[in-house]
Each structure stands twice: as structure tokens, then as C-alpha cells.
Amino acid sequence: MRLKLPALLILAFTVLSCQFTETMVLNEDGSGSMAIEVNLNEMMAFGGAAMVDSTVVKMDTIVNMKLFLEEKRDSISKLPAKEQLKLKKLENYNIHLKMDSEASEMVYDISTNFKNVDEANDMFNGLEQASDLMPNPDSNTEIKKEEDSPELIGVNYSFKKNIFKRDAYIKDKAMHQKQVDSLKQAEAFMGGSNYTLKYTFPKKIKKTSQPGATFSADGKTMTVQKSFIEYFKNPDLLDLEVELEK
């Protein structure tokens, strides 16, 4: 899983907060679904619409990446093998972009189903790559080569013997520190930016390593929220171990 701030989000952070929500539904056999949502409504409410094409007033688009990549197979075939492989990994994702400048709404999310929770490890990688593939109403979307960039933060998920784990780690310490330093001036404006985990398990939760978590009435869904900037500086803040009842 790669965590890197897209240019639009960096611009948003220098002015206002935005919200990240990571949602997972896990089945007893280890399969499930996962989605990551980026909510930029506050940015839009305070003039963020000026950062997007003024001709776009309303958009509610869902892109099935498997169909999209099939449509663009001719363009993809011209890319280096490494780039083709990256795009191939997106084929099980769905991308949703909803924007309404009149209602000050902009929400972007990427979701997927998985047969094993290990497959969710590349979720942010998919989010970052897919951001360049969202449809533009004024032009035909073309597949183009990405600039190579270092992966900053990794997250490993596992679910074994009734125990679920989320373990984040810094992959490139030098580049991660450089990114943290570049955001220092914006920290005062980012107090309202949060990263939220919302996980639903197949059984009732017996105990968790996150003391600040809240739980649903049936005890199967837990929610954990941290400051985004603090999480970005120290990914261990959202490390998680959950033991389920037998």
C-alpha cells in the first residue's frame, strides 16, 4: 500500500481540511470489501471549485476499471511493461467521483472486493494511480506513463486465528521526512483533517489495541479517528490489533 499526497490534496491542505475514511467489511473466510474515501466538501465550500474546471458543475461517475482498461488496451500496450503491470493491478477496483459545485460537494473514493485481506495491501497504491485516470468531461481520458516516485508508507493487513492486524510502516524514511517537512507551514490549517478507520468484522469484537475506538451496538463494527497530519508523521498511530470472540 502506498501513501502519497496527490497534488490536489496538498493544495487543499494549505487552505482547509479534508477527511479520509478507510472502510473495511471482513468476512469469516478472510474475504471482504474495502474502500478509501477522500471528502473535499469543505474545500469546495470555501472556493475550492475554482481549482477544478469551471465547466464542470455536476458529476457523479463510477468507473469500472476492468472495463476501462479493456477500452484503453491499445494505449496500454504502448507503455513499458512496468507501467502495464501497475495498471493491471487496478482491474478489480471501482472508482467513484461525485462533484457538485453548487452544493459545494466533492467526494472521491476507490473500492474493491478481495478474496483474502492481504489483497488490500495495495489499496492506496491503487488510489494514487487511479487519480490520474478519472474521466475529464472535456477530453478523452488517455493512459499515460507515470513518473516514478518512491513509496512512503506501507500498510500490511492480516487475519489469522480470529485476530485481525493493521500494521503501518515507513518505507522510505528520507523521502517521508522530506514530505513531512514540506507540510510544516500548513499544519496550522490542517487541524480539522482526520483519518478514520471504520471496520466491520464477522464476529463481535472481544478486545482491541486502540483504547479510543468506538463500537456499534452489535459490537462488530469499530471506528477509530486520528488527526491526519499526526498519522502521516507517525503511521503507527493507526496500528491495530483486534481479537474477535470465538
Described by the principal axes of the CA atoms, the overall outline is: globular
Distance between the ends = 30 Å
Kindly state the number of beta strands.
Answer: 12
Strand order of the largest sheet: 3-4-5-2-1-8-11-10
Q: Write down the secondary-structure element order.
A: HEEHEHHHEEHEEHEEEEHE
| Parts with pLDDT < 50 across at least 5 consecutive residues | 1-15
The value of Rg in angstroms is: 19 Å
Helix proportion:
10-25%
Distinct helical segment count: 8
Mean pLDDT: 79
- Biggest sheet character: 8 strands, mixed
Q: Strand portion, in percent?
A: 25-35%
What structural category characterises the helix and strand content? alpha+beta
Write down the oligomeric state: single chain
Number of domains: 1
Signal peptide: 1-20
Keywords: Signal
Protein name: Lipoprotein
